[in-house]
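Predict the 3D structure for this chain.
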Amino acid sequence: MSGLLGIVMLTAVMAATGPNITSNELQKNCERLATENFNRKTANDEDRIDYRAHYNVRLKKCFYRETYISHTPVGMFRRD
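Done. Predicted structure below.
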């Protein structure tokens, strides 16, 4: 659920950018916002291991994905 929340938050911020910004600048801004979002403190920080950000020029949206590790009785399970 946190990954979905990240997509919504970053999309809302990126939609407010001006029309004179290049796609390269939008991608860098998307990556910066993803880094800030990933580095925030949450209750389950030890389970968060990675993130990815991608700005889609056609859709004009910043997509963000977090990767979590879930501990199971048998071992570990990686969830994107």
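The two ends are 11 Å apart (CA to CA).
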